[in-house]
Specification:
Layout lengths: L1 H11 L16 H17 L3 E8 L9 H11 L4 H10 L1 E3 L2 E2 L2 E2 L3 E3 L8 H11 L10 E6 L2 E8 L2 H18 L1
Antiparallel strand pairs: 1-7, 2-5, 3-4, 6-7
Helix pairs in contact: 3-4, 3-5
Protein name: Reverse transcriptase domain-containing protein
InterPro entries: RT_dom
Organism: Araneus ventricosus (Orbweaver spider)
Length: 174
């Protein structure tokens, strides 16, 4: 129910970038492949070049900062009990026990629990901002944490510079 409400708010507000196809109605990996294939065909016809880089973020869910997700929920305009439910859902308290001795409780700040559609949606909200770090000449497709960027042009040097700048900006964002 929370996931369905969140999807509704995200789609209604058009908050998600159009290049994100993960867990969205009437979108999927085929859309991303077709976008890239179309770009390849266009550069072939125009006798240009295209460079592309594919990313899969290692331990993406383990490294996600929860506080930023909650800030994004506020930015989106999610109100009522949903943000509180999500905050409680994300909260992970643990303690360490060695033998018969236990530590105080610790509140884990990073990482989100895995195995639920809600977590995937929250991660999509988090990664949404990565596209804003790309230059005008660099296009992207996303499927949750799988990201592809590409750039077309007449000269490979231009393409390489654009893609390297994009990678640097994405690294700074992360």
């Amino acid at each position: 129910m929370v996931s369905a409400r969140l999807v509704h708010v995200l789609e209604r507000s058009k908050w998600l970038v159009p290049s994100q196809s993960g867990f969205r109605r009437r979108r999927g990996t085929i859309d991303n492949l077709l976008k890239l294939e179309t770009a390849i065909r266009e550069v072939f016809v125009r006798k240009k070049h295209l460079g592309s880089i594919f990313f899969d973020i290692e331990k993406a869910y383990d490294r996600t900062w929860r506080h930023e997700i909650l800030e994004h929920l506020s930015d989106i305009g999610l109100k009522g009990n949903s943000p509180l439910f999500i905050k409680n859902f994300l909260q992970t308290i643990f303690r360490i026990r060695v033998g018969n001795i236990s530590s105080d409780n610790f509140n884990q700040q990073e990482g989100v629990p895995q195995g639920s559609v809600l977590i995937v949606l929250l991660f999509i909200i988090k990664i949404n901002g990565i596209v804003s770090k790309l230059l005008a000449y660099v296009n992207s497709t996303l499927f949750v944490d799988d990201t592809q960027i590409h750039c077309a042009g007449k000269h490979m040097g231009f393409i390489q510079r654009q893609l390297q700048t994009a990678v640097n900006n994405m690294t700074d964002w992360a």
